[in-house]
Amino acid sequence: MRPILILGGTTEASHLAGAMADAQLPAILSYAGRTLTPRAQPVPVRIGGFGGVEGLVEYLLREGIGRVVDATHPFAAKISRNARTACHRTGIPLLRLERPVWRPAAGDRWVSLPDMEAAAAALSGVPRRVFLAIGRQHLGAFAGVQQHRYLLRLVDPPVTPPPFRDCSVVIGRGPFDTGAERALLERHGTEIIVTKNAGGEGARAKLHAARLLGLPVLMVERPASAGESVARVEDVLRWCHADLGV
Ligand SMILES: NC(=O)c1ccc[n+]([C@@H]2O[C@H](COP(=O)([O-])OP(=O)(O)OC[C@H]3O[C@@H](n4cnc5c(N)ncnc54)[C@H](OP(=O)(O)O)[C@@H]3O)[C@@H](O)[C@H]2O)c1
To answer: Which terms does the UniProt entry file under GO BP (predicted)?
Structure first.
């Protein structure tokens, strides 16, 4: 059977890699190489960009890839777009594994915003203590809003200083739990949270903690996605087997 390429970098991709190993499906998990210490995996791993669409096409053909599962983060729009184009060109079946969006529940004080720039604009005004829970890539969008005291949480210690006059950095990788998230928000006197609508369980606890503390959340919504998509690992396994005619 030809190898299945999993485009990863998410908890779901790791779960899928485990499930494919258990099912004895020949998977290869691909990381962009953003984190210093990626989790150990039960399938072969490759690390680093492919070199755009051309590089991905070349990789797919060279490795004899039979299917591609795009299990990347909902905000990783470029690799998803590249995967669609490369799979279309080569005729290799592609499936997107994507966790459902978070939806507000009673007691939540969310403001939905289309992108980081809108979230930065919404933060204009009086100085506040802001938990900028967006990872490291988009911090620059907030560089023009310097009156706040920022709390950042990053997977790895920053190589270059964050672009803020007043900020604290905590290092941490999910999954997080509500009690610890609440304690973190209280310790830093957080008044407002900015986050991406990533979905999934690992990062949800901060939203529960915000609800308990009555804190507002600026929720940056996902970029649009396209193509066939499923939400569960079992659905991907079924797709692999259906494709085999099993
Ligand atoms: N964006 C987020 O908020 C976020 C959060 C958590 C985890 N992640 C994970 O971090 C990675 C990078 O995210 P991003 O937002 O920088 O992605 P992106 O903007 O969509 O992709 C930028 C470039 O990174 C390379 N790349 C991305 N994912 C890759 C993968 N799984 N395997 C090999 N190359 C990959 C590709 O380089 P080439 O063009 O050279 O092939 C791609 O063009 C993704 O794997 C994603 O799942 C992202």
So the answer is: cobalamin biosynthetic process
- The CATH number of the domain covering residues in 110-220: 3.40.50.720
pLDDT digits (tens, 9 = 90+) for 7-66: 999 989 999 999 999 999 999 999 999 888 888 899 999 999 999 999 999 999 999 999
138-164 pLDDT, tens digit each: 999 999 999 999 999 999 999 999 999
Strands 4-7, 27-31: pairing is parallel
Stated pTM of the model: 0.92
**Closest-CA residue to 193 (of 201, 202, 185):** 185
Token pair in block for residue 64: 């004899």
Helix (H, G, I), strand (E, B) or coil at 117: helix
> Does CATH place domain 4-100+224-242 in 3.40.50.720?
yes
First and final CA of the chain: distance in angstroms?
12
* Distance from the alpha carbon of residue 7 to the mean position of ligand 1, in angstroms: 9
The angle at the Cα of 69, spanning 235 to 33, to the nearest 5 degrees, equals 135
* Separation in Å, CA 146 to CA 16, 217, 237: 41, 19, 47
Per residue in 176-211, pLDDT (tens digit) is: 999 999 999 999 999 999 999 999 888 999 999 999
Using CB distances shorter than 6 Å, the residues near ligand 1 are 7-10, 30-32, 34, 49-52, 55-56, 72-73, 75-79, 82, 135, 137, 196
- Closest residue by CA, ligand 1 atom 42: 79
Domain with CATH 3.40.50.720 in the chain: 4-100+224-242, 110-220
